[in-house]
Write a structure and sequence with these properties.
The structure holds 2 protein chains of 2 kinds. In chain A, 42% of the residues lie in helices and 21% in strands. By secondary structure, chain A is of the alpha/beta class. Chain B has helices spanning 13-21, 27-31, 35-42, 46-60, 67-76, 78-81, 89-94, 115-127, 150-160, 162-165, 170-176, 186-202, 213-218, 225-245, 273-279, 340-347; strands at 65-66, 83-84, 99-100, 104-108, 138-143, 178-181, 205-211, 248-253, 255-258, 265-270, 282-289, 292-299, 306-313, 316-319, 325-326, 335-338. The chains are: A alpha/beta, B alpha/beta. Chains A and B meet through helix 1, helix 8, helix 9, strand 5 and helix 10 of A and helix 2, helix 3, helix 4, strand 1 and helix 5 of B.
């Protein structure tokens, strides 16, 4: 039923059908005052209904017209997207091997999920990214701010300070890589200014988490230079206190859609940290990421962190454009670094 | 925050009344429905639902702080919201001062390794006056297995701080700051947590020790999902009021023995499973390997995994080496325990 597509309340829809308006065409043909008397609503509401009807029917008409595909309501051609993708910015993780398998770093405009056993370094990677997003443009970074949403209370400021100081010390290395000539850039940042650009929210229940994701739209409008949102971890509040699993799936899906919308609208990266759980597969218990199978579909990219002997590894489990590969990384006092270098500076190949 | 009434949020009256009419009273009710469901239930258009939800979300959402503000707060409140020094130099250095406030710390280890001894010493340290390096506060000790021994507590006090404890009346005052609760079941424990919340706000409680979590649950539930669910609420609760009152929490966990093939070495697994392991912020694992006891900093956001050898003397836990050995890989989370035979052999 075409009238069913209009975003109006159910009772208004019922009234339209009862009054004989079964197609959008019939609604747009009638005048606003006629509509108002027929379905017993005010003139303003009738105007609104007619506006919705004409918008939706315009969409219908243009689908039939294939020569004007680029004017489709809200659509883009693949060619324009290709140009965008080529120049899309990435946020480095400070570990060259990890950056390589990610194609340069964490991509903006996409939702990336990182999951692993406790103690593997998820929070560490989150903090490293929150610091790295602030690397100035002259050094090949984004010069942006970060939003860190903490659901577990594992954000330790002392550690952020450590990583921030180490990042500032290592910045000349970034400029060598970026400019390819030996030029000593004078830009010196202070660790306090790095701390100032990380917006921190402490969330204590799933209600607050959902409310916060809703509010982020307005927040980022006011702080346009936010370039990364990190949620650590997205699972914690959804794993306890939920009797209705179907409700949980619906809420998580809605949250994932909102986050994807934010990523695309403001061109920022969304990084979600996830926990693991045991699942009974093929006769044995195995570790998989929490929140279930429906959630697995929600993120664009999925990286699993695990122990391989004595080393920490990251494995790209799911991505539309990156090859499945794994890389080793290590967590040092200076943050996330390559695993085989005994010296703590980044090796530029 | 989640239980805020929609009526009091400053929404335009028309929409606020519709919410009440459909029995959506608190913010939690509203946020537990997707926008589509709300549209159907409230019988209003999508645009109105979106703007009402945006308003409700803004009100319920937690306040924004910057990392710089957090740092300044930490530095300023180092005394009351910083760390509890454990007086084990290597451990304190690794933890940037001691057991941090506002987070949950877990102690795991096999039977008889020294967990209760460590907790006794911590409760003593928290009750000491500030000029001796204590917190000058009260301690609530939830003792499920009846392991708390006041005699031992006083003995540790006398050995470590003779100048305080041998003074008249001091021992009584220090010991008087430690309140011991003995719940016998999970429901009693839940009740006592609620009572604790009230007294935390009224009195100067700086440390909460729960000894032990696993003992509460092991008796009542089967393995796996139901046990984790039962504890899930407790974890959230403890975390929330830990944070809001910024007092220190320290929880001890039991361990189950899992028999391995080797005769003298058994590998143990922490009792409460992986869900719990994610929930705590700092995890200290106590174990015994080749006759030597180790305390491992297995999970911590500020330091690499380090292991310190220790002994138990009349003055409590004493570290033998303050530098610590760094561990990698699976070593971090495994818990070694010598079989009874081997321990006896190595001592005699």
């Amino acid at each position: 039923m075409e009238v069913g597509m209009l975003p109006i309340s159910a009772s208004k829809r019922g009234k339209l059908l009862a009054a004989g308006y079964t197609s959008l065409h019939s609604i747009s043909r009638a005048s606003a005052s006629q509509l108002a008397t027929d379905i017993e609503v005010s003139e303003d509401e009738a105007c609104e209904i007619r506006k919705y009807a004409s918008q939706t029917s315009a969409l219908d008409r243009s689908i039939g017209n294939s020569s004007n595909t680029s004017n489709l309501y809200g659509g883009q051609t693949a060619w324009t997207m290709l140009n965008e993708e080529k120049f899309s910015t990435r946020i480095t993780t400070s570990c060259v091997d990890l950056d390589n398998i990610l194609g340069g770093g964490i991509t903006c405009k996409e939702v990336t999920e990182l999951g692993g056993v406790p103690g593997i370094g998820k929070t560490q990677i989150g903090i490293q990214l929150a610091v790295n997003v602030q690397i100035p443009l002259e050094y090949g970074g984004l010069g942006g701010k970060a939003i860190y949403i903490d659901t577990e209370g594992s954000f330790m400021v002392e550690r952020v300070l450590q990583i921030a100081e180490a990042c500032i010390e290592d910045m000349p290395e970034y400029s060598h890589h970026f400019h390819n000539n030996v030029q000593d850039c004078e830009v010196k940042m202070h660790p306090n200014s790095i701390l100032e650009n990380i917006f921190y929210f402490r969330v204590c229940s799933y209600t607050e988490q959902i409310a916060l994701v809703n509010y982020l739209d307005k927040f980022i409008e006011e702080h346009k230079d936010v370039k990364i949102i990190i949620i650590d971890s997205v699972t914690f509040h959804f794993r306890q206190d939920f009797d209705d699993m179907a409700l949980r799936t619906r809420l998580l899906n809605e949250m994932a859609l909102k986050l994807m919308k934010l990523a695309r609208k403001f061109c920022l990266a969304v990084v979600l940290l996830n926990q693991v759980t045991t699942k009974y597969i093929e006769g044995s218990y195995q570790l998989t990421l929490a929140l279930g199978d429906s959630w697995s579909h929600s993120c664009t990219n999925r990286i699993i962190l695990f122990w391989n002997g004595d080393e920490r590894h990251a494995y790209i489990d799911k991505s539309p454009s990156l090859k499945s590969a794994s890389a080793a990384y290590s967590v040092t006092t200076r943050g996330i670094r390559n695993s085989n270098s005994s010296c703590k500076r980044i090796k530029m190949v | 925050m989640a239980n805020k009434l929609i009526k009091q949020m400053g929404l335009p009256n028309s929409i606020a009344n519709i919410f009440t009419a459909r029995n959506i009273i608190t913010a939690k009710d509203a946020l537990s429905l997707t926008e589509f469901e709300l549209m159907e239930q409230l019988d209003v258009g999508m645009a109105e639902v979106k703007s009402a939800m945006a308003h409700i979300s803004e009100v319920v959402c937690p306040p924004c702080q910057t990392a710089l503000l957090l740092m300044e707060q930490r530095v300023r409140d180092e005394r009351s919201a910083g760390h509890l020094p454990t007086r084990l130099r290597g451990l304190d250095e690794a933890l940037c001062g001691g057991i941090p406030f506002g987070v949950v710390t877990e102690l795991v280890g096999p039977a008889g390794i020294g967990k209760t001894q460590f907790c006794l010493k911590l409760s003593l340290l928290a009750s000491l006056p500030e000029n001796c390096g204590g917190l000058d506060g009260r301690v609530i000790y939830i003792d499920v297995e009846s392991k708390f021994s006041s005699t031992r507590l006083i003995q540790i006090g006398i050995e470590n701080f003779p100048e305080i404890f041998l003074k008249k009346g001091m021992a009584q005052e220090m010991a008087g700051r430690i309140v011991i609760l003995r719940p016998t079941s999970l429901s009693e424990f839940t009740e006592s947590l609620h009572h604790v919340q009230v007294s935390l706000l009224q009195k100067q409680v700086k440390l909460l020790i729960i000894d032990s979590m696993a003992a509460l649950v092991l008796g009542e539930h089967d393995c796996g999902a139901s046990r984790q669910q039962a504890l899930g609420w407790h974890v959230s609760f403890i975390k929330i009021f830990t944070n809001s009152n910024s007092s220190d929490k320290s929880i001890r966990s039991h361990s189950i023995k899992k028999e391995d093939r080797a005769a003298y070495d058994s590998h143990l697994v922490a009792a409460l499973g992986i869900n719990w392991a994610h929930a705590v912020t700092i995890r200290l694992v106590l174990e015994a390997r080749s006759g030597q006891r180790f305390i491992k900093l297995a999970k911590s956001p500020i330091s690499p995994p380090l292991a310190f050898p220790f002994n138990i003397t009349s003055s409590g836990l004493v570290l033998l080496d303050d530098d610590g050995i760094e561990m990698k890989g699976s070593e971090i989370n495994t818990i070694h325990c010598q079989g009874q035979k081997a321990l006896f052999n190595s001592e005699w």
